[in-house]
Amino acid sequence: MKVQVINILQRNPTWLTVLLCFILLIWQFFATALSVNVQIIIFISLILLTGIPHGALDHLIQEAIYKKLNKTYHLRNFLLKYLLIMAIYALVWYLFSGLSLLIFLVISAWHFGETDLEKVPKGVLIWSFTKLIYGFYILSFILLTHVDEVKPIVFKMVGTQSNLIESWSFIEMNVKPILYLLGLSFTTIFIIAQSQYLINFEKERMFRLLIILVSSAYLPLLPAFALYFGGWHALCAFDNIYGYLREDAPNLSFKYIYLKSLPFTILAIVSLCVFLWYCNVFAASFDPFSILFIFISLITLPHLVITHQMK
Ligand SMILES: CC1=C(/C=C/C(C)=C/C=C/C(C)=C/C=O)C(C)(C)CCC1
User: Fold this and answer.
1) Intervals of the chain under pLDDT 70
2) For residue 204, how many other CB atoms are within 10 A of its CB?
3) What is the pLDDT at residue 45?
4) Residue among 115, 116, 136 at smallest CA distance from 202
5) Are the C-beta atoms of 297 and 89 separated by less than 8 Å?
6) In sequence order, what are the residues at sequence separation of 6 or more whose Cβ sits closer than 8 angstroms to the Cβ of residue 141?
7) What's the CA-to-centroid distance between 290 and ligand 1, angstroms?
8) Atom of ligand 1 nearest to the CA of 149
9) Are 165 and 255 in contact (CB under 8 A)?
10) What is the domain extent for residue 231?
11) CA–CA separation, 90 vs 53, rounded Å?
């Protein structure tokens, strides 16, 4: 029995996330509301344990892609390209914060769709569109079920611009219709895509995601986002990357690739701390979560460019 449970968790570690959802919901229901400290601990733990490490494998992915293409891989060139993309995006954030946030939301939606629906064939237009709508739905669900908590973070990220205030009041007043419309659009396009190119989705996997999403709606924003991002998206991404790297090196162990992510995880954490310190000293108004999300956006763009090349 014990061995069976360990096997299931090893094959599908997202069951642990489901378990965590139940623990948090029960705690919240029977004991007290989750304190801010507990929320922050859950958020930071998941971001550090899986969120950042899944992106810290990009150098291995790039190396594997180059190997398949018979191209020579240089870590130095990889790092330069990565940092250049981040620097350009940071400049765009500095000059046009509203546009940058929009870019972040669109690429995140695309990235969530691409990772979660990894079985979907690349280059089939209807499925590409389905992935995007799927990502938008997931992201909107998490953000719009926490609209009051999202608001101050977003306003600190982009400043109080009049067009943002207008769009925000529209969103605030239409949370339910927006979610219904997106849900309906996703269902419709999913059915059309399935009728054109049938894909067999694991029902049990979809059930796990559903539990995580529904639970997230009843939890505060930080644990809600961390449960999806660290407890679902990053774990699925790890699985995809592991499978991709094993195509050329079947003996690769999961422990080995996790350890390989550590140097860049540590580098990312140190850079984040420097970034937080810099913004605290030099920015007019400072909110650590806004800065953290801007930092996540900066590392997401090159990460997406690399993971998109995995076939
Ligand atoms: C939760 C949240 C936000 C969105 C975060 C997103 C979109 C994260 C995407 C991360 C990705 C795609 C990482 C890739 O590995 C906002 C609106 C910025 C601020 C309010 C809280």
Assistant:
1) 311
2) 9
3) 97
4) 116
5) yes
6) 179, 213, 216, 217
7) 10
8) 20
9) no
10) 2-307
11) 21
**Number of domains within the chain:** 1
Q: Is 0.90 exceeded by the ipTM?
A: yes
- What pLDDT sits at residue 216? 97
pLDDT in tens, 201-221: 888 999 999 999 999 999 999
User: Which token pair is 243?
Assistant: 């499978």
Residue 27 corresponds to which tokens in the numbers above?
């705690």
Q: Are 17 and 265 in contact (CB under 8 A)?
A: no
Residue whose pair of structure tokens reads 């096997």 in the numeric block: 7
Burial 18-34 (b: 16+ CB within 10 A, else e): bebbeebeeebeeeeeb
Pocket of ligand 1, candidates 100, 227, 296: which has the most ligand atoms within 8 Å of its Cβ, to mutate? 296
Within 13 Å, how many C-alpha atoms sit on residue 233's CB side?
26
What is the pLDDT at residue 265?
96
- Which H helix or E strand runs over 196? helix 175-196
Ligand 1 centre distance from Cα of residue 71 (Å)? 34
Structure tokens at 137: 């739905």
- CA-closest candidate to residue 136, choices 102, 164, 166: 102
pLDDT for the residue 285: 75
